[in-house]
Amino acid sequence: MSAWQKMAVIGDSIASGVREPAAGYDDLSWIDRMTTALGTETLNLGERDLRAREVRDRQLAPALAFRPDLAVVVCGGNDAFSRTFDPAALEADLTHMVGAFRAIGAEVLTLGLFDIVASGLITDARFLAEFQPRLTLLHDITERVSHTHGAVFADFRAHPSVADPSIYSSDLIHLNARGHAIAAETALALLAQRAPIA
To answer: Where is the SGNH hydrolase-type esterase domain (predicted)?
Structure first.
């Protein structure tokens, strides 16, 4: 149990919990694990392939109507991979969403994505040249917005497991069940710095 009673989750496939099974781990998403550990009623609106503006337009209002005391905001990856990536627009959308939850008194958790390039699984020169800088920019934007609004920022890019190939799914985008377990443990430890988790 924890200080939080209701958790709203908005975002893309990371929020929705896309993953592959991993030997020795229950096939649970990081949000599933957090829900169990926190004892919250959870509304997860996450949907794969959405960009930040789509998350804002489709998910923010119902999430706010849920009146959460804890919100998870995870998006921007699909923006970074888009040919029309607009960092300023992404920052504005993240600012609006995080700010809206903070305005109703909710704690907010955001994250910096695990950097799969560190695992050595991706060696494509085009990806490294074109998209790696965008993912770095996404990380920096999310961290900046989080700090501005007093949100909890889980910096998975700096996590000790980031270089471990065994935490990633075969699509080379998402985590597997082991990675989700690590993400949940890390997020919960950060939240516990704000309020006790029994």
So the answer is: 9-182
